[in-house]
Amino acid sequence: MGERLKLTRQQQNFTQQDVASRLHVARQTVSSWETGHSYPDIDSLLALSNLYQLSLDQLMREDAQVVLGIKRQTVRGRLKNVRWPLVASAALFLAVWGLYSFSSLPLEQWLPLVVFAQGFLNLYVLNGINKFQQQLALTPKLLLRERYPWLVRVGWLPALLFLGIGGWLLARTNWLGPVLFTMGIMLLAAWGIICTEKKISRLK
To answer: Which three-class secondary structure state does DSSP give residue 190?
Structure first.
């Protein structure tokens, strides 16, 4: 496949830097693809297909080893994106639990911030898993906003309600205020993800 990419690039009078600039990658990455040291991921492969005006079949020509390598590389990349936020979330939980259990530090004032940070990390991980599932799906899957259009129109209302009640309780130093306010922020973030989510190329 590397030789095919190199030959196609040369036939279309592109330099490696031209291709790198158009695909927003480093020139060394393009060189690595052409020498066979690595494979382009599925998104880069689609971009190459569009740039060279060739179908994926023409680029790969039933090269089973290349297809397997691309799939493995894409899976590893997706898992890496999910793994580190999970590690950060677990480390944050263990650190707070350890400080709360074995020290006399007043951690109550930091609890809302910790809850918010863990909620944000978990939301990020769930979004990453959802994108990964879309790639592995056997058939194209509708986005959440396509299945439930009403979420875009009114999905922000619960978030606004939680923010309003949480802010009102915060002003009265009620312990429930930070919790509701944090939930409101998380709901607002989830609504934003639903509204801006893009379709992901499937692994075939």
So the answer is: helix
CB atoms within 10 A of CB 65: 10
Phi-psi region of 98 (alpha: psi -120 to 50; beta: other; left: phi over 0): alpha
Model-level pTM? 0.43
E strands present in 135-190 = none
Which domains, ranges and CATH numbers included, belong to the chain? 2-62 (1.10.260.40), 79-196 (no CATH)
Of the pLDDT bands very low, low, confident and very high (cuts 50, 70, 90), residue 60 is low
| CB count in 10 Å sphere of residue 179 | 16
Tokens of 60: 């790969």
Structure tokens, 62: 């039933």
